[in-house]
C-alpha cells in the first residue's frame, strides 16, 4: 500500500515535470482519475463571473447547452441541460470536462476549451489560443458547481 | 437455416447502395425550407413578397445587356434563358474540360464574360454576379438537382466529402457534426438544417441581401473559428460540389429565403 502510494506520487511528479516543458503557453495540469483536482490558477474561481461567462455567446456554452437561466432566450439543445451539473459532477470532473471533453469521448462535439494542439485550419485571430483562459475555466467551474438539483 | 438467412440478408443489402456512417438516407433529406417558420415560408412562396425575385429581375436585364469589347449580351449567344438555361444550375458545379476541374455557376458566368464577351470578370459576391446567377438558377426552380453525375467529377466530389467530414477551427467541428448528426436540434435557439443547398443564390434575412453558397460556407467556417477558404478556392468548389451531389434529386428553389 505504502509502496503504491509512493509510486503514484512519483508518477504525478514526473507528469507535472513533463507538462512544465509544454511550449504552448498553457498552464500545466495533471489528470488524476477522471478529473483535474487542482485549480488551473491555484485559486478558486468566481462563480458570479462564471455565470456571466456561461451566458456570454463568445464562450459558446449557451449555443449548445440550456440551463436555469430564465432571462436568457435562444439557448441550445445540442448538449445536456446544465441544471444539476454541480450534483452530477465534482469540481475536479467539471474541470477536465471543460479543459478536454475529448478525453472521455473522442467523437464528442464539445470543444476542448483549454487546448491548442491537434487542431486544423484555426482562424488567424485564434491561432495558439485556447477557447477559454485558465481564469475563465476556473470561474465557470465555480459557477457550475453551484448548479445543484 | 440461419446460414441461408444470413446469405439472403447479405444479398438483399448488397443491392442497396451503402450509406456511409452519419449520412442521411435519401428519403429523409429535407430542404432548409422545411425548418423555417410559416411566415418565412410564405415569403418564399409568393414571388411578389420574395425579395430574391428583385435580384432575378435585375439579372434578366443584365442577361440582355451587351457588354465587353465583343459587345455581346448573354442572350445573343444563349437566346431565351427560359429554355436554354432550364436545368443548367441544377447540374453545377460542372466539369470544365479546359481547366480539368469543376467550376461553379458564378465561375462559368465569368468564364463566359472573359472568353466570349471579352469583359472583365465580375467580383465574387458583387450584385451583378449574384443577379445573373440568380436569374440563371431561377430557370431551374422545381427541377431536380443532378450535380456530380459526370464521372470526371468523382475525385472532386470525394475531396468535398473529405472536407465535409474534416473537423476544423478552434472549436474543432466538422460540417457533419451538426448537419448530419444534429439537424433539427437548436443551436442558440435556431434550428440546425441538413445543409441541402437547394436554393442558392438565396436571400438571407440575416444578410438583408442575396448571397452565394460560398458566402454561407465561409460564414460557417468563421463560426467554428476556422480560416475560411477564399472565394473560388478549389476546396470551396469541391465542398459545394459535394453538397450539391448530396442533394441530388431534390428540387431547386432559387431564389430561396432563409432566416
TrEMBL record, chain A:
Is the keyword Heme assigned to this protein?
yes
> Which key words are in the record?
Heme, Iron, Metal-binding, Signal
Alphabetized Pfam families for the sequence: Cytochrom_C
- Asked whether the keyword Iron is assigned, the reply is yes
Signal sequence segment: 1-23
Q: Which NCBIfam families does the entry mention?
A: thiosulf_SoxX (TIGR04485)
The name under which this protein is listed is: Sulfur oxidation c-type cytochrome SoxX
Which species expresses this protein natively?
A: Bradyrhizobium campsiandrae
Tell me the name of the encoding gene: soxX
UniProtKB/TrEMBL annotation, chain B:
Annotated Cytochrome c domain ranges read: 46-140
Q: What catalytic activity does the UniProt entry give for this protein?
A: S-sulfanyl-L-cysteinyl-[SoxY protein] + thiosulfate + 2 Fe(III)-[cytochrome c] = S-(2-sulfodisulfanyl)-L-cysteinyl-[SoxY protein] + 2 Fe(II)-[cytochrome c] + 2 H(+); L-cysteinyl-[SoxY protein] + thiosulfate + 2 Fe(III)-[cytochrome c] = S-sulfosulfanyl-L-cysteinyl-[SoxY protein] + 2 Fe(II)-[cytochrome c] + 2 H(+)
Q: Where in the cell is it found?
A: Periplasm
Enzyme Commission designation: 2.8.5.2
Q: What class of enzyme is it?
A: transferase
Q: Which InterPro entries match?
A: Cyt_c-like_dom, Cyt_c-like_dom_sf, SoxA
Q: Does the keyword NAD apply?
A: no
SUPFAM superfamilies recorded:
Cytochrome c (SSF46626)
Principal localisation: periplasm
Name one matching Pfam family. SoxA-TsdA_cyt-c
Alphabetical UniProt keywords: Electron transport, Heme, Iron, Metal-binding, Periplasm, Signal, Transferase, Transport
Q: Which PROSITE patterns match?
A: CYTC
Spell out the subunit comment: Heterodimer of SoxA and SoxX.
* Family that this chain belongs to: Belongs to the SoxA family.
Recorded hits in NCBIfam families, A to Z, give: thiosulf_SoxA
Q: What is this protein called?
A: SoxAX cytochrome complex subunit A
Species, as recorded? Bradyrhizobium campsiandrae
Q: Which gene encodes it?
A: soxA
Amino acid at each position: 500500500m505504502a509502496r503504491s502510494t509512493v509510486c503514484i506520487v512519483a508518477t504525478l511528479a514526473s507528469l507535472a515535470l513533463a507538462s512544465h516543458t509544454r511550449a504552448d503557453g498553457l498552464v500545466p495540469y495533471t489528470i488524476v482519475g477522471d478529473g483535474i483536482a487542482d485549480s488551473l490558477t491555484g485559486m478558486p474561481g468566481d462563480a458570479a463571473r462564471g455565470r456571466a461567462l456561461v451566458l456570454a455567446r463568445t464562450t459558446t456554452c449557451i449555443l449548445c447547452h440550456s440551463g436555469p437561466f430564465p432571462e436568457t432566450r435562444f439557448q441550445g439543445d445540442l448538449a445536456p441541460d446544465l441544471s444539476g451539473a454541480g450534483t452530477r459532477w465534482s469540481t475536479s470532473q467539471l474541470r477536465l470536462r471543460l479543459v478536454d471533453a475529448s478525453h472521455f469521448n473522442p467523437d464528442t462535439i464539445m470543444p476542448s476549451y483549454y487546448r491548442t494542439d491537434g487542431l486544423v485550419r484555426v482562424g488567424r485571430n485564434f491561432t495558439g489560443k485556447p477557447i477559454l483562459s485558465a481564469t475563465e475555466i476556473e470561474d465557470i467551474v465555480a459557477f457550475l458547481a453551484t448548479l445543484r438539483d | 437455416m440461419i446460414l441461408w438467412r444470413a446469405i439472403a440478408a447479405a444479398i438483399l443489402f448488397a443491392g442497396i447502395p451503402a450509406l456511409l456512417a452519419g449520412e442521411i438516407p435519401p428519403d429523409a433529406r429535407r430542404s432548409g425550407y422545411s425548418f423555417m417558420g410559416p411566415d418565412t415560408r410564405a415569403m418564399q412562396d409568393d414571388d411578389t413578397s420574395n425579395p430574391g425575385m428583385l435580384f432575378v429581375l435585375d439579372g434578366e436585364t443584365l442577361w440582355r445587356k451587351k457588354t465587353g469589347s465583343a459587345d455581346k449580351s448573354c442572350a445573343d449567344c444563349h437566346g431565351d434563358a427560359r429554355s436554354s438555361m432550364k436545368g443548367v444550375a441544377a447540374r453545377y458545379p460542372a466539369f470544365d474540360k479546359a481547366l480539368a476541374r469543376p467550376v461553379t455557376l458564378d465561375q462559368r458566368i465569368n468564364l463566359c464574360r472573359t472568353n466570349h464577351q471579352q469583359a472583365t470578370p465580375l467580383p465574387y459576391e458583387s450584385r451583378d454576379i449574384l443577379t445573373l446567377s440568380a436569374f440563371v438558377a431561377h430557370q431551374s426552380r422545381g427541377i431536380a438537382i443532378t450535380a456530380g453525375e459526370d464521372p470526371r467529377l468523382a475525385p472532386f466530389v470525394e475531396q468535398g466529402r473529405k472536407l465535409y467530414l474534416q473537423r476544423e477551427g478552434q472549436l474543432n467541428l466538422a460540417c457533419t457534426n451538426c448537419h448530419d448528426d444534429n439537424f433539427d436540434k437548436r443551436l442558440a435557439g435556431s434550428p440546425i438544417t441538413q445543409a441541402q443547398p437547394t436554393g442558392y443564390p438565396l436571400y438571407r434575412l440575416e444578410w438583408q441581401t442575396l448571397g452565394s453558397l460560398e458566402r454561407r460556407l465561409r460564414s460557417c467556417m468563421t463560426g467554428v473559428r476556422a480560416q475560411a477558404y477564399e472565394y473560388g478556392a478549389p476546396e470551396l468548389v469541391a465542398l459545394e460540389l459535394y453538397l450539391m451531389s448530396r442533394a441530388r434529386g431534390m428540387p431547386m428553389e432559387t431564389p430561396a429565403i432563409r432566416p
